[in-house]
Task: structure prediction
Amino acid sequence: MSNPTLISPSSPLKRIMNAVRAVEAGNYVPGLLSDLEHDSGELGQLAHMLDAMARNVSIRDHQLRLLRKVIPIGVALSAEKDYNRLLETLVVEAQFFTNADAGTLYILEDNALKFVILRNTSLDMAMGGTSGAEIPFYPVKLYKPDGSENRANVVSHAALTHKRINIADAYEADGFDFSGTKAFDARTKYRSKSFLAIPLENTDNKVIGVLQLINAKNADTGEIIPFKDDDVLEALVLLATAALDGYIREASLRQEIAKLKIEINESRRTRQVAEITETRYFQELKDKANQLRDQSRNKK
Amino acid sequence: MSTIISIHSFRGGTGKSNTTANIAALLAADGARVGVVDTDIQSPGIHVLFNLDESEMVHSLNDYLWGKCAIEEAAHDVAAHLGAEVKGQIFLIPSSIKPGEIARILREGYDVGLLNDGFRDVVEKLKLDYLLIDTHPGLNEETLLSIAISNALVIILRPDSQDYQGTAVTVDVARKLDVPKMLMLVNKVPPQFDLEDVRTRVEQTYDATVAAVLPHSDEMMTLASSGIFAIRFPDHPITKGLRKLVDQLKA
Result:
């Protein structure tokens, strides 16, 4: 009878112990012990139980994260003044829940999608938000110079059509201009593959921004896979929309300061003053006021 | 020697009556005898801040203008209504809040000259150190008169595009009336604004002294018309700002 413990180079018991530690550390990959699970002996049963337990732990982790992350973000939204930081948290969490390698948040301003937050985990890139780093990329215009809609770009297409775009592989997709993406990839030796672009619509059904996630990864193998629907992502999209709305409102309030200086129409001012001061009543009043002041001065 | 101070804003809703009541309370707290006249005959309101009930109103400014009473008979001692003891005194001359009387004065008008005599009389009879005039928004005849006879004018505006143009006209008109002292008060500033930046911009725009820039305050909103803010919250930043304004009025 063959001894199953001799199959692997390291001792199966040690591997099971390592797997337990991985569960503890939160980085257990399902199927880690799949070869041991085929074993009919007690160690195989143990590996099988451990794997099942680890999967349950991961589901509970997911729920806990929903409870501990998404709900507090919602609460923070009602009190938070630093929308920039909130938006960054939302992008990072959206990446986490979809297991996406990269995430970008755009704001719609002057018919162009301007970069607000950019994160790429494997390239170790963090721009916008609390990073302090400016994003050096040009905004994506919604319209071409001839005035027609720019649907060639994934994010502008999403903003124009109010529809989500889910692409399995950018390099194979038809109808979209991924030239900017390809240039970025060439420069950074990256490979952008799966895309999910979600238009962020406010309560008036107006698109105020786009959340784009890139390269969803299979949690087990690390392989790039297409994006799937996710309840938590839906909650994050709603929160991101509310946070972006707050961000826009705050920005427009800040701009009002400049209006203090520019809002006076000088020619109208002159005319309006003249309409009052050139009346007979005003002239009489002025004379009388001077007289009264002289009187009180004399009294003093 | 008494000082007549007009408190004005070109538009309504700037917190004019509220500011007037608070200036009065702070002056009285310093021991002054202060008179307050509500010349906002069309929409009177300052009596509410001084907690003066309609049933307590013996005579109003309207009665004086119709020759029914002497001006000092329309003056109500409201110092006891402040909710805290003050050294000085406050006499309020309210406008009538009876709809019939408001309608009558709007319909028939009145002799604006009588207002001037009334102001002089009340200062003398009640030995006032200060007479505060809560004016009607805009620039009608009685408002122009109030400004013309004042030793000091406080112009209130909010950081709101609707306030800028009219305020500019008010500033120019007041200059032509040679008001000896003109101070601006920027009120209800939203929290997103930098108060010093607002001050600089308003001073540059109107070429006038900004005595205080007061932030929007939830406490002020909650208190609304049910009391005098400076008395209730003596250490609040808004009270400190109002105090600065009062110090400049006294200087």
Observations:
- The interface with chain A takes residues 1, 116, 139, 141, 144-145, 148-149, 159, 161, 164-165, 168-169, 172-173, 176-178, 180, 190, 192-194, 197-198, 201-202, 204-205 of chain B (CB under 8 Å).
